[in-house]
Design goal:
Elements (H helix, E strand, L loop, with lengths): L14 H27 L1 E6 L2 E8 L5 E5 L3 E5 L7 E9 L1 H9 L7 H36 L3 H23 L10 E4 L4 H5 L2 H28 L6 E4 L3 E6 L6 H13 L4 E4 L25 E3 L7 H8 L4 E3 L3 E5 L2 E5 L18 H13 L7 E3 L15 E4 L6 E4 L5 E4 L19 E8 L6 E9 L7 E7 L16 E3 L4
Parallel strand pairs: 3-5, 8-9, 9-10, 10-11, 13-14, 14-15, 15-17
Antiparallel strand pairs: 1-2, 2-5, 3-4, 4-6, 8-18, 12-13, 16-17, 18-19, 19-20, 20-21
Helix pairs in contact: 1-3, 1-4, 3-4, 6-7
Length: about 500
Amino acid sequence: MDEPTPTPVAGHRSPRSRAAGRWLFRLAVAVAGAVVGVLLLGRVEAPIGPFDATLAFTPTGGGATVEVPPLGALAVDAYDGPLGLDVQLRRVDEARIQALVADPARLDGLVDRVSEDLQDAVVRLAWRTGAAGIGGAVLISLVAFRRWREPLVAAGASVVLLAGTAGLGAATWRPEALSQPTYTGLLVNATSLIGDARDIVARFDAYRASLEDLVGNVGTLYAALSALPQPAGDADTVALLHVSDLHLNPAGFDLVAQVVDQFAVDGVLDTGDITDWGSEPENQLIGSVGALGVPYVFVRGNHDSAVTAALVAAQPNATVLDDSATTVAGITVVGTPDPRFTPDQDATGDAEPLAQTGEDLAEVAGELPEPPAIAMVHDPEQAPPLDGVVPLVLAGHTHEREVETLDDGTLLMVQGSTGGAGLRALQGEYPEPLTCTVLYLDPATGALVAYDDITLGGLGETEATIVRTVVPQDATPGDADSGDGGTPASPTD
């Protein structure tokens, strides 16, 4: 007679279930220890080209992220797996960047150098991360079980886990994803603004080579002015240089310095957008403002941050106007900033309407003991409320030079781009010209008596021209037009 099979007692597991539970717990402890080890020690410091960077593996589900404080980050879905590569560019090494600037030929190998540095850093990071993961698993297992055999089990489990992670990453590697990054923060519009870095470097080499001669030609143009009509007969005049929208183009800063020297201007009036993003890394070129040796008056454009404005204000002889007034060589100037900050279109906020800023500036002008000679704004849309309040309004923003007489007789002079719209213009097929204007004013009345429109050809072009427009003494400034009756000077390059 067969004996009945014993029925398992409720609440008791079979030996096989208990063994499986113990192994699952061991595995969980090993995984937890490996994760703790990776988080605490799985990072390296390494040079990446001119940058000092921190690289780390984090449990973020694969892919790679490059953080560029304070501009934002870009993410690349390059592989799958539990660990993601996080690269943070912390700062630019001054010695390496100076060596790069001093020897532009080094730019040719910059991309290869960055690739080699990144590969070396990732290899070091992989070994360090593996050691940290195994060490963390062993330590946590020893603490949890207090038996010497358990750390060996945890070490074996973590080796299998890390090897599986590496194998999954290698099997799912997608190199084509490197050309399709996802941008966040201020870098959202990076592709439309600067394009491929290697292409920009290659084109800027040609751009700089063609502009070296052009900037030098300003001296030749200045000599050619001896044949042009004098701004105001034999009377002395105050010469002020109007620039705008430099957008960080080094050639634009060179042009400003050359004109200041050759034309012996008494001051520079900048109607904004000296930078592209208004971030601290961009601000190194602004130091050249303090080296001009003449007063520099600035109003913030929509690409200039408060940090940028503060740095300009800190330069010798520089003044930043914010619904305020200043005097340059006896000429009273008022100015207001663009109320917007729009490098990142998602961060505009509730900006004060442009027309309202013009009205506020008109009130500032009306409260002065004597009416100002010039008002400075960034966007021409800020100018209409100033019509009839000041004789001359200077603006920029549009990158198109224009002279217009408003309804009540105020002359609106919109500058082009002194920086040729900056390095972003290297992407366009049409080479943006570099433009600026020397204004000649009566020192007694502040009235505009003449102006020289200076234009240098952009990428690949060799044209350099000056057009002088003399304002008739018995006419309002608006009766002069730089397109009609101006006298050009254009030397052959």
